[in-house]
Amino acid sequence: MKRYEKFAAAIAEKIRSGLLPPGAKVPSVRVASLAYAVSPSTVFQGYYLLEDRGLIQARPRSGYYVRESASRQVDEPQPMQRVSAGTDVGVSDLIYSVLSSLRDPDTVPFGSAFPSPDLYPLPRLARSMAKAVRGMDGGRLSDMTTGHPELRRQIALRYMNSGVRLPMDELVITNGAMEALNLCLQCVTQPGDLVAIEAPAFYACLQVLERLKLKAVEIPMHPRDGVNLAALDDALQRLPIKACWFMSSLQNPLGASMNNDAKAALYTLLEQYQVPLIEDDVYAELYYGTKPPHPVKSLDRSGLVMHCSSFSKSLAPGYRVGWVAGGRFARQIDRLKLMTTISPSLPAQAALADYLQHGGYDRHLHKLRDTLETQQNAMLAAAARYFPKETQVNRPLGGYFLWFEFPQRVDSLKLFELALAQGISITPGPIFSATQQHRHCIRLNCGYRWDKRSEDAMALLGRIIATF
Amino acid sequence: MKRYEKFAAAIAEKIRSGLLPPGAKVPSVRVASLAYAVSPSTVFQGYYLLEDRGLIQARPRSGYYVRESASRQVDEPQPMQRVSAGTDVGVSDLIYSVLSSLRDPDTVPFGSAFPSPDLYPLPRLARSMAKAVRGMDGGRLSDMTTGHPELRRQIALRYMNSGVRLPMDELVITNGAMEALNLCLQCVTQPGDLVAIEAPAFYACLQVLERLKLKAVEIPMHPRDGVNLAALDDALQRLPIKACWFMSSLQNPLGASMNNDAKAALYTLLEQYQVPLIEDDVYAELYYGTKPPHPVKSLDRSGLVMHCSSFSKSLAPGYRVGWVAGGRFARQIDRLKLMTTISPSLPAQAALADYLQHGGYDRHLHKLRDTLETQQNAMLAAAARYFPKETQVNRPLGGYFLWFEFPQRVDSLKLFELALAQGISITPGPIFSATQQHRHCIRLNCGYRWDKRSEDAMALLGRIIATF
Fold first, then answer.
1. For residue A23, what are the domain limits?
2. Least buried of A27, A193, B203, B260, by fewest C-beta within 10 Å?
3. Of B89, B151, B342, B354, which to mutate for an interface test with A (greatest number of A Cβ within 10 Å)?
4. What is the ipTM score, two decimals?
5. Are residues A138 and B116, on separate chains, in Cβ contact within 8 Å?
């Protein structure tokens, strides 16, 4: 990282943490130059970068200020009623109609679940792939079930570097995180069992519960801080919950992240009730700034946490390579996999192993994080311009989703239809809920390069919303 | 195919079909030359080829004869007792201890489930892969759920060329056939349901039933002709069977193939009882000679057959690309896949699409079939030399498995331990049975190049068997 980038990162951190609140003046060039022991030109370069990313804006003859536009915070929603028993899940039809709407490449992809494929180093990955398959001999193929050894080693190394010590044999390579999550859930539940999930939750979580005939106990979320632990404690006490499935960092769809204290408290609950956690951590690498979030897995003394992740969001969509650090359930997960898909594609595993060793993954991630933060700011700014005054929006510390809450009169399912007719896809709130809540909410994807088309689409969305 | 190869194929066909029984003299050079309108030297070349493959042998001053060694036929086993109710399956532990025994690369791989990786065009596939990933753009990645369009087209074309007309949207690309089989079974059953399977059956079939809490109704097999249809009819009449899972051609482990009449009769039963068939057809491309077997799917007027296959045995082990032609269940299968693994690895799909177009798949298959037939004959000849007289063995019309029945005193689980201690893996019979039958049987893999080590291993196996 260059000096001005480091300086910019430090200021950005202060904005994110609230030390520099919206509307606050950022330090003058002279003050910053002294305080951070950098040259004035470094400060200028840093402020240009932050301006470019939409974090600060210049006011003529006055200096730089933290942008107001991005600052609106969603109020904490009313805690949901206590769930007296698990809810049967049945949202699949709605989800499929939304998903199939996304297949038209001419649609503005605000409803997409993936960032723009342009953000990934596909040509560099192609080189790794070509090299990997050239070197692939027969021997490799015959023992494929345990996963590519070098890929396993590289993943274990990344855990170690982020402070999580992991015995290699806890790692099971899977067909993306989705398979990992499925296998984990099957390991610790039987049809009819109760599973604690977030409300709102990642819609695939709802689908998987529906498929496995599990019942959802929806735990209310704080839109910034994540799972409401008091509600979880209460639910664990009253109900025979067999597993929790949470995204502790950069939750989809809210973008919420639990802080370290909350994660520790969550782990204490897990140990107290001896309930395993399926930690879906696929967005972990997409944090903004320089401080990676710690997964609950990092606290796992007794093997209760199954930590699932993948390269699909951070590096190689379409390669379908994920993994789970399965704790005490690892062997069982590995066996289940052998009965369902046997192993993920070996060329993809070999290519990623090569890329992780030689491709410059951390450099790519650094750039990706910056790009996503810039785009988030652009979308927030556009929302401030075009969406109704009462709109509420969170400001996630990473990822590429924004969760908008509109006044209750706005029907997101209708909005979905109207917007789609105008060539804009969005994700309506109810598909994130086993009980079809969040009807006045939508999730938008800011993972695509911001341009005039995006700007126009936001303006058009704003006009449609105003008709409700 | 060269002229002498065509001639040899015609003679081989007669041997396989029994028109030229074991011990019979094959036509003299003069007669064959006239009958097939080829030159005497073509006949000579053809007979050399057949001798090389172990189908015929020369007797000094007398000419060529169909080999006796390969001719021993297994008697039809006693039909099993009728299954009064489904059997809970619980073989996984045994299967895992057998599978993990195969991981040592120094072990003679008679117990392996795969042929030698040397038999596959890995360098040519690597070229297709390098080309495919170079050309892979972002757009491709965003709509990956339905499978790679060109790969789907190529697979549909191969169906069409073999006489099976298939609407493209019946095709679901999966992570190998194993995922396809799992998805099909989940589509048409609930935990506790009865499923008709073969006895003996592919062990993964037993594992999957165990995992999904289904009950097995074991239908007795004829070792050459496949499923006993009278027993099946009886079972369908008496029991609420929800699905059949059969390998109609080159069944694993017996190598049995139903003939076309039997397949037609099976389809009539399916329609009569309206029971869907999951047709596991992964060995279909490995038939010897020139006449491909027809799947039951080719008779499917009403969408009752889910035809599962893959490239894992015929072209690209480790790539993990399979598919199902799902009949009336295709959409449901596709949805289930979206909830479990989303999609198979895209680079693998793209590479195979390129290879199928430009790689010379049929040329490769032709060579592969010949190699496997040669190796089967070599193993049969060795078995005749080294195994006890009472040994019975079938002569499958393709593939790379041989199923040996020894006298009842031979305990294949003990044999497995003793052989492994000597560095030879085998697959003991009971892992192919929900009720732990076939204790005196083993499956051997003849998919590896035959050499002195294989010959010695057969001799050693013979000596161990003699100690029982």
1. 3-66
2. B260
3. B342
4. 0.85
5. yes
